[in-house]
Structure formats: C-alpha cells, structure tokens
Hints:
The chain is built from 22 helices and no strands.
Amino acid sequence: MRPSSANAIKNWFHQQRPLNRRESNQLLDTLTTSFRTHLDREHPITSSVQNDRSHSVESSAASHAPSRPSAHVTTAKHLNMLLSNPLLSDTITGKPKLSSSKAITLRESPAQWFDVQVANGRMNLAAALSVLTISNRTNDSTWKTFNAGTRVLEWLSSNGYLVKEDFIGNRNLASMLVRALCREGNHEPVLKWSRPEMTELILRAGLPHSLALRWQRTVLSAAVEQNSASYGLDYAIARHLQSYHAFASNRELAPMVLTKPVMRIVRRIAQSTKQELENLTHYDEFQASLEIVPTTYSSLKALADVYHPVRPTVEFALEYIKRRLPKTEQLDHLLAHRSWEQLDVSLCLRTAELLLDEERYQETTSVLDILRANYPQSVDLENTENTSPLPTSDSPASSSADLRQLDEPWFTKRFAALRRALNMSSAVS
C-alpha cells in the first residue's frame, strides 16, 4: 500500500463521524483505489490468452463448478457493506439535533430532551437542577407524566453521584430533588435518606460529618414543606415521625438532624387551621417527639402546646416568654433570625389570646408588654388605629387567609385587637 494512500485513510478515519455524502463518496473512492491496488499487486491479473487457455484446460474437470467472482466485485461489495453502517452515513436516524430547526426544547418535550442529553453525555448536575426547577414550578400535564424527580434520581444513581460531594454539597439540588420526588409520590428514597444509615454511608465515602448532617437537614426540611403543600399537614407530620423513630435511638444525631424540620412543621402548624389537623394521635406523638429538641429551641414546644387543635395549654409558653424573651438575657443567635422572630411573635399573640379567654388579664398584659418591648417593628404600633377586631375561633377569618401569613400586617392587626379586647374586658370586670 502506498504511503500516501495509507495516510489518506488514516486521516479519514480520525475525522469525526458521521460524514456527509460527499465525504462518504470520497472515502469510498480512496478505499476502493487502495484495496484494488493492493489486490492487483498481491494477485496480478494474467493476460487474456493465458486466462483462456487455463479456462479450456479446466473446463472438462469443473464444467459444473460456479464461476469465481471477480476480486474487484467482492472488494466493492465489502466496502459498500461497511459504508452502510449508520456511523458512515450522512442520514441521521432517530432524534434530531438540538441545534436543528426542529430542536427539542426542555419545556415542551422534557422526556425526549432528557433522553437526548443522557444519550449524548451532556447531562450534568446543572442540567439536572434546571429540569427539577422547571418541574417544581409548572403545572403542565407533560411534566407531570415525565416524573422529573424519579428520572433525575435514576441518572444520579447510575452515575454514582449519590455519595459524591458534588451532589451532597449542593443543597439547592437536593431540595429540588426531594420536592419533586414527594410530589410524584416516590417517598421511598426520601425515607431512606432520612435514616442514620445514610449519614454513615456519606461518612464512609470520606465526606465531612458536618456536610452529611447539613444535607440530611435539607432533605427532611424539603420533605416537610412539599408534603404539607401536596398532601396536608397531617401527612407531613406522619412522614416526619418515621424519621424521628429512625433517629430516636441515636441521641447524638437526632437533635442535629431533626430540629430544623421540626421548626418547619411548627411554623406550618402556626399558619394552619384546626381543619388541617385532624389526626390527634399524630399530633400528640409529634408533641412527645419534641423532647429531642435542645432547650435552646424551647419555643417550638411552646408553640406546639398553644396551637394544639383540641387541648391548647399556655403554662409552658408563659414560662418561656417570661424567661427567654426579655432582652436582658442573651438569646441564641438562631432566635434572632427572622424566621425565629416571627415564631416568637406568633407565640406571644397566641398565648395572649388563650390567657384572655381564661380571663387572666394581668398575665395577658404582661405578655403583650414583653412582645411590644422586644419586637415593636412586628406589631407596628404607629399604625394600629384602623385594624379589624380580633377574629374568634369560630369566625370565618380564623380559618381563612388571615391565619396563613406570619408577617407584620397580620401581627399588627392581632396585637391591636388583643389590646382593645383586653381593655374592654378589664373595664367590664
């Protein structure tokens, strides 16, 4: 084989496939010429006279034998078979390229887009996050049947990401994945991740202990939020109790993993109505589970007491408010966080309502004074003149949007209403 022909073939085969038709034809011509040159050199064709003489001598002995096909024809047939391979064809079957005029879009065809990305090796954690983000924010029926959470989980698992730092350290991706799985009803992976065994698995992979705990807190918190939104607060509490029982025997890990999810549940309880809390057995069990929460977060137990759907109690809450809220004491840094501040304000208002119902006016005044001294911005004292009366537990307002937001307008309205109700009750008494 001539060096030039060998180099030409080498250059052709090291080009990216598939080829277009012109390139395929050029490759075919090059291969044909090279093969035929080599064939002629190794097996030269004799003259026509010699060929005829040989044929006449052998005709009597092999008159019935089939004629041997031309070496050139065999070579051409073999090359045609090679070039019929899709890798050497300019016609691409299957899904179109994303860059074509009929490109597949993630929003319109999520399943097909996902399959193309995986098949082409272009799927990565950033793309997975994009898929989950859109899935969690759309109500399109195409996305519901796609089951983005399950598909992404399968891809993560098959590529060994589930115990890699790239995934474990990405709280946003973990949260989005858990929300998608819960919404799809695929709770088994979330339950598996909510066990101490998952902590040990992450540690065996060589990742830091703090990273493992933070990841599990993210998983459990996202599950609480999504289960509450999709299936109701009772269901979210029931699922959380499964995690609590899994960690109950590990007194070291339980507080570090479960406190943040407990806070999410308590916040949802403070925003809920009695109609959302129908399973009293689960609620009572949840109250009992709060014994794992460090004393620093005693407000969670106090809130669970005052928001009990049937038997609210104020004694522990009153003790907490008098002992922890005055700013003469050093509060934990988390209690100064915005979300904890809102829970403290909600606790004070709910406790004051219950004390007022029990005609404990002096203690009601004390609670409201502590609230005003510690969180004046939350009750907006300068704009309380035109607020509505305090909704009662039987009024429509108590089971509507008024109880859905823990924010300044709602706090202001209830604080002013409590003040007026207290003044009226004190005057009557």
